[in-house]
């Protein structure tokens, strides 16, 4: 029952909690300072470890334990405010001395503190710090990793601190309500810290490279301090709406319903029953319905658990998946899409397998986030940049053959080779993909890397850049598929895409210079070869023309000589036949030919001056040739 100092006849000298108020305040201050140092040290150490090993178990364990200790510190500080008020209530009231005007800011802070109260601010601050710390370090995807000897040391320290808090909790539990009403609530908050420390020690002891459950348990431990801190924050916010009465004995604000559940045997409704009985006079134990529910609760719970356990044997396989049904750990059948019934867990279980889902896998091992899809009308995404002078996310460096003169060497190129694959559609492929390989993408990536190293070891950069990418991709895909089939992986390679093959970004400019020099040299060689070929063709043309002209001239001379020879032979034959007449005829012919276009003046001595020239226009019949016989008249 709260004491009001302004009430008539209020006397606090005979109350044990007021008599021991100063002693309780001193104990709470000492315990609060010690636990604050430990909590802040653990919190700072968690931040420091998170900078170097963010995926280890240490940041989660340290922050959960530090948050639980911060909540206990918040409870101790809240109890200290109550104990200090009781200690001051026994003292004589001090004479108020008028003070000078402290200033506008000081008056505002004093008014703000009076309206809200320092206990509310401290409780809300500690609770928010614990809640934010747990939320920031929450990560259920922590990978398993070895922790070494430091885990045993950390577990020993956690158990030692838990033992000290257990002694503190036992001493608080022995306090009576009349002597110290807040001791029971502080004992419950101590149990929260003890549970977190003990479970964290267990996680550290069993953590290893093959154990994943300690990591999951270490993260889930943070639920307990997170829920308690959330409850404290709500209580601090709701206390703002309650009137401030400085002369009324305050209550402990750091009361937790969740911390009150940490008792044996568990009685979750006990606090609700006490509140209803104290405030409204309702005793739930006198209601027959609640009595019947309490008696029937255990049988009904067992029936519900049995039915729920039996329903674990009903499995639903989605349309895009398949399921491998294991009975007593042995694969029996491959389920298709739909509902299937089997033995309940753990006697039977169904392992999900993909059914025709197509994946694209790059040979690089980059953990970059998946790029967002670019709009059709917007700019191209960065992944579409295929320039050689830029580094790409999916590029992987590869060593290939090289030659310098007569010496063999090697060089490095960047390539982006991607595989489109899926799990085989047969039941045997589903079984092989599930039981023969722990990680299908890693298996494909390692196999492809080995194939690429073996295949590109004998190829030069010029050969890779000059070959057809389609044939190169088909060759790589067939080799990878053959290795996967030999391993009985159950994976089907649908397509192999060679996105890019180019020198590294740093050597791109140098390679461009080498290419430009090679192109220039080849252009000069081709130009000189063209000039030489042109000169050769011109010389051949001139020689052919001269030869043809000489041949034509020779043929003309030869033809003229042959014609003259024939003419001479004909004239010789005619002379032999006609004699002098042929000579005269030739003479006259040559004379008429020579005088055809000449202007002649003919002088005839037989024409006199007395007689005029006469032209005889008479026609005479040629005399008959006596050498030709006449035709007989019929």
From TrEMBL:
The keyword Membrane applies. CDD domains: SPFH_HflK. The keyword Calcium does not apply. InterPro entries: Band7/mec-2_domain (IPR050710), Band_7 (IPR001107), Band_7/SPFH_dom_sf (IPR036013), HflK (IPR010201). Residues 320-531 form the Band domain. It is found in: Membrane. GO terms for cellular component: membrane. The chain crosses the membrane at residues 33-55, 61-83, 116-138, 150-168, 189-209, 215-238, 296-314. Pfam families: Band_7 (PF01145). Keywords: Membrane, Transmembrane, Transmembrane helix. It is a single-pass membrane protein. Belongs to the band 7/mec-2 family. HflK subfamily. This is Band 7 domain-containing protein.
């Amino acid at each position: 029952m709260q004491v009001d100092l302004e009430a008539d006849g209020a006397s606090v000298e005979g109350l044990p909690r007021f008599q021991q108020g100063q002693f309780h305040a001193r104990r709470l201050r000492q315990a609060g300072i010690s636990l604050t140092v430990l909590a802040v040290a653990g919190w700072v150490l968690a931040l420091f470890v998170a900078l170097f090993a963010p995926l280890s178990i240490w940041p989660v364990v340290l922050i959960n334990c530090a948050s639980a200790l911060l909540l206990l510190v918040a409870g101790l500080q809240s109890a200290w405010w109550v104990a200090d008020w009781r200690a001051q209530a026994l003292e004589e009231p001090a004479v108020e001395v008028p003070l000078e005007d402290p200033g506008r800011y000081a008056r505002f802070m004093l008014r703000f503190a009076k309206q809200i109260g320092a206990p509310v601010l401290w409780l809300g601050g500690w609770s928010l710090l614990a809640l934010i710390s747990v939320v920031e370090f929450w990560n259920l995807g922590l990978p398993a990793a070895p922790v070494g000897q430091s885990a045993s040391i950390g577990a020993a320290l956690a158990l030692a601190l838990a033992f000290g808090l257990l002694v503190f909790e036992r001493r608080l539990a022995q306090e009576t309500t009349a002597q110290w009403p807040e001791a029971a609530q502080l004992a419950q908050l101590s149990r929260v810290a003890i549970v977190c420390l003990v479970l964290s020690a267990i996680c550290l002891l069993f953590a290893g490279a093959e154990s994943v459950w300690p990591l999951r348990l270490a993260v889930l431990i943070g639920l307990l301090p997170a829920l308690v801190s959330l409850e404290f924050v709500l209580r601090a916010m709701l206390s703002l709406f309650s009137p401030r009465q400085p002369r009324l004995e305050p209550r402990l604000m750091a009361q937790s319903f969740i911390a009150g559940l940490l008792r044996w045997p568990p009685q979750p409704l006990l606090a609700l029953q006490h509140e209803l009985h104290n405030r409204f006079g309702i005793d739930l134990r006198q209601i027959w319905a609640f009595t019947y529910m309490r008696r029937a609760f255990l049988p009904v719970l067992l029936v519900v658990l049995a039915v729920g356990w039996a329903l674990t044997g009903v499995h639903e396989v989605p349309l895009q998946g398949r399921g491998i049904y294991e009975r007593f750990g042995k694969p029996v059948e491959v389920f298709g899409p739909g509902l299937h019934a089997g033995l309940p867990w753990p006697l039977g279980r169904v392992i999900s397998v993909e059914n025709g889902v197509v994946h694209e896998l790059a040979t690089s091992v980059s953990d970059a986030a998946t790029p967002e899809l670019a709009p059709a009308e917007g700019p191209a995404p960065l992944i579409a940049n295929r320039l050689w002078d830029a580094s790409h996310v999916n590029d992987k460096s590869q060593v290939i053959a090289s030659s310098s003169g007569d010496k063999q060497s090697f060089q490095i190129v960047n390539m982006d080779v991607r595989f489109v694959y899926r799990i085989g559609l047969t039941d045997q492929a589903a079984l092989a993909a599930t039981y023969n390989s722990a990680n299908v993408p890693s298996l494909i990536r390692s196999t492809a890397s080995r194939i690429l190293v073996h295949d590109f070891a004998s190829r030069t950069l010029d050969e890779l850049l000059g070959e057809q990418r389609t044939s190169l991709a088909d060759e790589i895909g067939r080799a990878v598929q053959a290795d996967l089939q030999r391993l009985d992986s159950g994976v089907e390679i649908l397509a192999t895409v060679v996105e890019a093959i180019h020198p590294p970004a740093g050597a791109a400019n140098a390679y461009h210079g080498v290419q430009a020099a090679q192109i220039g040299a080849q252009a000069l060689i081709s130009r000189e070869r063209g000039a030489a070929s042109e000169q050769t063709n011109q010389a051949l043309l001139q020689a052919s023309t001269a030869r043809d002209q000489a041949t034509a001239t020779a043929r003309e001379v030869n033809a003229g000589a042959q014609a003259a020879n024939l003419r001479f032979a004909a004239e010789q034959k005619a002379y032999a036949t006609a004699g002098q007449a042929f000579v005269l005829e030739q003479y006259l012919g040559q004379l008429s030919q020579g005088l055809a276009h000449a202007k002649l003046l003919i002088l005839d001595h037989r024409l006199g001056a007395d007689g005029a020239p006469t032209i005889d226009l008479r026609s005479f019949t040629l005399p008959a040739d006596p050498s030709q016989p006449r035709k007989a008249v019929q």
